[in-house]
Every structure is written in structure tokens, then in C-alpha cells.
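Sample pair:
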Amino acid sequence: MHKTHIQVILFFILFSCCAGNKIPVPASSETEKIILETSRSSSLKGNFFAFNTANLFTFFNSDEASFLNTVHALNPQMLRFPGGTIANFYHPSGKGYGFRKSDVKTREGGIDTNINNLLADQDAMKDTGNFLKRFIPFAKNLNTKIIYVANILTGEISETIQALEIIQSSGLTVEYVELGNEFYLNAYKDLVPDASEYVKKARPFAQAIRQKFPQLKLSVPAEAKPHKAVNKASGWDLMLSKFNFYDAVSIHIYPDFKLCSSPNKSANFDCYSNGVNQFIFQLYPDYLKRTSKLYQNKPLLITEWNIARPNRIFGNTMLHGIYTALFLLENMQLNLINPAVQLMCFHNLASKENAFSLLTPADLNESFPPSVNYAVFKMLAPIADKPELVPVKTSLPDNHKIKVYAFRVSGKYHLYIMNYGATKFNFKGFSNENGNVPEITSAECLYGEGKEKKGASLESYRYKADADAVNCPPYSFTHVTLKF
């Protein structure tokens, strides 16, 4: 993974008016109309604002006020502990994440290097306590539920029971227990050559957990490749789907977009946005239908999602932010049609990983470099807790790269406009199905510029606040709060 920080200049402009000084919306429209069908709002089934905490406690002081405030602003609803790959080496009684040198073997994909590096960081720490003791007050401060990933590779059943007992006795709620992480990878072939061998390892853990904690829901790792146009399930999934000792299926979504290399910036960006469009609206929905059917309609938990090799293509540019916002919002909308996906857990909340993580410490201190995805999640934070999806009608033709989503939370309406094409749009004429015109109580637009070494880049765009319209420049993400 590239460690070089790709700088991004984010222009994040927020304009709002206090009560008594609202922004009136004209009844007539000079450009595009948006109608919110406020009488048809529907509650969603699932949690879409979970975050992976892999390596967070190695590189951040989770008790530090500025860090906690920065995370609070995201309104997280669930946290995944101890993380992804590191969960396969976690021990709840050792120092830090309890990594042991004896557990690490030479494996494909750099797993051995990653764990050895983390071992060195762990050995250098002055604190000798286990990170579970830091995770619990962190999660309680944020008032989140928990996804716990059991170490069934190098751990003992008693360790998993011990960790779950500690978490439960603290008053936190464990929503799911994942039985290991990504065992379908070649890196684990020596110990887990196929799904049948995985089942031999996972089933005893499942039985012990069910006996001690019968209310907990258990999940197993599926091999997800939704970015490939294939209609055939992997051998891993075909075999694992025949068993029934689990309640849900964990999938990891990391689309690998092809490299676009046009010398023209606009054409290059459009090439990438075409790839995003194809994945989110074609390949991914087809994958969900196939996977849900294969696993007998068990809930699908996206316990990790981002893009593959982000520094290679998107870096920390608006391209990455557009994908993040669009993928999350589209999953929330799909939930009404097909509630298969009941969890989305973004990878990663805070670590040294540039472009993967929302928060990255600069030189291991408590200052945070700009992250386009942090800005995106901060804009989405108002709809994290118990949102209702509101149907939307627009005057836009279907062939434009613009999507509009609306939600109601605690009586307020939140409109999200994703413009991932080269056309600028002005929206006027907001109303509901009865013709009632709302007030705009606040609005914010995210746009930026970033340069990536392979040529993916984004031009800068200015944003002009207009009391009579919401102007959506090309390649932008806009959030509007309405009151009817």
C-alpha cells in the first residue's frame, strides 16, 4: 500500500440561516424541479453507518477530546472490532492487539509484513494493556453497537468467549459476531484450503458462542467479486452456502476500476465516472441478487467496503468521495426493494492507511490531514440514525449522471444531490406531492481538486450560494435541509 499522502484541496462551503431568517424557495421553477413524496416515507431495515476500527488504537489516543469530537461528528452507529486482517491474529489477553510472533507465517498479499510491522509498533508501546480495554470506553462514548470478529485462525474458543463476556458486561450491545475474516484468500490456503476446512474451524466456535450467548447473530465470510461481470459463484461460496450453522453472510466490497489514461482531464474523469456508474447500477445489483439467492436469502453484511487500491486511481480526490456517497445512498435506496443488505461498515475509520481511512494522523500526532470521505460522511451524518427514505420525483432525464435522494429524520427532510457528470444543474421549485413549498434551512456543497499520478484529476469548481436555487456544479455532492 502506498504511504505517500496525496494532497487534496477541499472547498467545503456551508451556508445556513437561523430560525426566523429562512431561505424561501420560489413556487415556480426556471430549471429543474424536485418533488418529495412526503406521505410515502419508509423506514429502512439495517444499519448503514458502521465503521471498521482496524489499527485505530495503535496510532490514535482514543481518549483525546479532539479525536473523539472528530469521530462524533460522523454519528457512527456501529463499530467493528478488532478489525479485518488483524482479527485473525488478535488475542484479548496480550499487549495491544495481542499479536504473537509465533502466529505469523509468510503469506501472500503482504499479510505477514503488515502484522510484523504492527508487532513492532506494539512492542514499542509503553501501555501494556489490551486494546479491548480502550475500545470499550471509546464505543460507550460514541454510544454504538458492536460487530466483533472472532479469531478462529490463531485463537482459542475460550478467548472469543472471554472477549464477548467483557464487552457484554460493560453494557455494550454486540449485534453480530463474524467467524473470522477473509479466509477465502490465498494467504490462508495452508490452513484453510477450502470452505469445508473453514467450516471445521468455524463450527465449534459457533456452537460455543450459541451456547453462551444464544441471542448473538453469527456471520461467515463470503468471497465477494461484484466488480467482475460473472454469473457463476466461486467454489468457496458454492460449498459454504450448503451449511446452515450461521445467521448472516459477510461480504467485502472493493471494486477495482480500470485505469483511464486520457490526456484530457474531462474525458479522464468521465471515463472513471462511467466505471462507477456501471459498477453501482449494473454489476453490483446483479451480484446482490445472485448472492442472496445462493445463501437462501440470509442477511448480507458488508463488513468492509471502499475501493481497491485507492491510491492507484482515485487517491484522495473528489472521485473517491463521489463513489463513497453514491454507493452508500444507493444501498439505502435498494434496501426498500431488496433488504438483503442489512449492514454497511466502511473501511476504515482511523489508521495510517492513506486513502482507505477517514482519519490519518500526520506524523503520528493528533492532527488530521484533509479527507474527502470524511467530509462526505460528515454531510451524511444527519441521516445515520433511524432515517426514513422519502421517494423523489425530478424533471431530469434518465440519461444524466445525477441522482437525488431524500430522507426524513426527526421531522426534518434531508435532500442529497449527487452530480457525477460534466453538466451543471440548477434546482428550483422544491415541493411535496401536494404542492406545498418548503423552506431551505441549510445547504452545503462538496467539491474539490486533486491530482493523481496516473492522470486522474478533477478541475476546481466555485460554488455560489443562491437563495433561490441550489447550484450543483459538475462532479459535486450537495446536501440540503428542508422544512415543510
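DSSP finds ten helices and 22 strands in the chain.
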